[in-house]
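Morning. Coffee machine broken again, so started the prediction first thing and wrote up yesterday's gels while waiting. Chain of 185 residues, entered below exactly as on the submission form.
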Amino acid sequence: MLWREEIRGNRGEFDSRARYNNLRIMSSGYVAPAQGSDANHCPHCDVYANQYWSLPTIKFVTPAGGSTTRSVDELSVSYCRRCDKYSVWFGNQMIHPLASTAPLPSTDMPDDVRLDYVEARDVVVRSPRSAAALLRLAVQKLTIDLGENGKNLNEDIGRLVKKGLPPRIQQALDAVRVIGNNASR
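Came back before lunch.
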């Protein structure tokens, strides 16, 4: 797999030229839904598409049978031009659908790691603790894929650092490890 070869290089060491292209690829190209955005990845169809926005009004019916129409401060709706579905926003928070805005996985991510990442992405809105535990598991599987034994994640990350893992990536992996450990308790 290209992803593994870029990271390991030819001798099992980290290829400093690649600079973890997979992490850059994972985050580039994905545009998370954001309130007022002209275009983003739709939370329904996961396709980058134009979004149309509206400030809806609500018709309130009184007990006497009359009605009044009012707008609700900070309520807005976006409409995806690709799939014809809508998202509801209150302020800067998407309240429907309850979908993740986390980036999609890199296409060259190892399959076993990708499965855990996608599951974490799918549950993060409903259960951030579950997502943290799943991401920790994904990191552990990634270290195994990179040639470590997978028995102690902290030690595996340390050995990867000795092979040339950049400090920024080490800090990110350690954060996932610690937060994932805490989430599972």
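The chain has two domains: 2-30+103-183, 39-96. Going to sketch it on the whiteboard this afternoon.
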